[in-house]
Amino acid sequence: MKLTFLGTGTSVGVPTIGCNCRVCTSTDRHDKRLRASALVEDGDTRVLIDCGPDFRQQMLGREFKKIDAVLLTHVHYDHVGGIDDLRPFCVFGEVKIYSDMITADRLKRSISYCFGEHKYPGVPQISLSVVKPHERFNVGGIEIVAVQVMHDKLPILGYRIGDLLYITDMKTIGEEEMRYVEGVKVLVVNALRFSPEHHSHLTVGEALSFLRKVGASRTFFTHMGHGIGLHQEVDGKLPDGVNLAYDGQVIEF
């Protein structure tokens, strides 16, 4: 199985418009972060996690192949703003999107033209399936389990895909969810910055506490803002087995 980080940035991306800090003015490609998204591949099966406003840019130059499923974590724009750009992939057939009920309901209102009874020619041909926490489903032979976490007061979904657990925008997780993440080997989790604390996102310290509970052998931080610091300075100071992910990074497991 292969995981490609398409984007590892927070909702405004890095560099942040109008900011002249060391990170935003860095010339190191590791400090250029598009909005958070990832592509999981196993054989000929491709699963996209989140489809934000940078999706078109993220897919340019990549092999043009079918996307078998899109897993949405929640409805915030930086995670769903690129759904209309799925339309080129509809040449391979309908694109299947999975989300929780909150996200599905809001998408039907915000991009209603994709779901209307009489669609005009050219709109994305997509289907929307509601996933409940702890529900197991299969995409191309890959078993996926939805896990519920809290983004401040908003319940959102993380996804366990085999030995991979992908969580973004989490602030807290209920103890009852931990049974569904036992035994994962690769953890991807959000880590916005070192400080100050944020009301709806994990800091680096909070993410480190979470990964100790999970016990994964490899952990990658994503959904990072410029407050995380320079990749070159920070990455090597993290505990063994923990790294800052970066755009374009590919890991196999």
Q: How many β-strand runs?
A: 14
Please state the overall shape, judged from the principal axes of the Cα atoms: globular
Q: State the end-to-end distance.
A: 6 Å
Beta-strand share of residues: 25-35%
Instruction: Indicate the radius of gyration in whole angstroms.
Output: 17 Å
The helix tally amounts to: 5
Low-pLDDT segments: none
Which class best fits the helix and strand makeup?
alpha/beta
Taking strands numbered 1, 2, ... along the chain, how are they ordered across the largest sheet? 6-5-4-3-2-1-14
Biggest β-sheet: count, sense, barrel? 7 strands, mixed
> How much helix is in the residues?
10-25%
Estimate the mean pLDDT confidence: 96
Summarize the helix and strand pattern as letters. EEEHEHEHEEEEEEHEHEE
